[in-house]
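name: query_chain
kind: protein
chains: 1
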Amino acid sequence: MLAPILDALSFAADRHKTQLRKGVAGYPYVNHVIAVTDLLARSGVEDVTTLQAALLHDTIEDTDTRPEELATRFGPEVRDLVLEVTDDKALAKEERKRLQIAHAPTLSERAKRIKIADKTCNIIDIAHDPPPDWSLTRRLDYLAWAEAVVHHCLGVGPAPLEQAWHDALAAGRSTLASLR
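structure:
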């Protein structure tokens, strides 16, 4: 079970090696996909395919990785799961955001879990290490949008993952409210 997950981690680390998170601290981007996967695992997700896809969830969207590469190395099931949570960067940002909300109810249970974990980690970052050019209003808008996406993903469990989402959202709102 561990070898396929480490293979996905190695692949993700290589593909994201030059990228940094947008926050002031400028953490290596790979820390994000590790955090998403760690949240899933600590919440009780043991499915290797889901954990691999969580590590790889931004490779197609944010690197030059092609879907065929994921299918060849990790199998079509992992590729398809990554594609489920991948935005089409050819579309305008607002359209991508709208589509995430619209498509969330149609995602598989595995994809919904990845989406919940991804948004949970993102709102923690937005609350505590935002991009330097993000106003308080933009940060609050992000939390509201993330909540709209995750709303359609809840109910697939596991309970600790969904509780982590609720806790992070409440903490994020509290943190941002204290900045007003």
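note: The CA atoms of residues 9 and 160 lie 23 Å apart.
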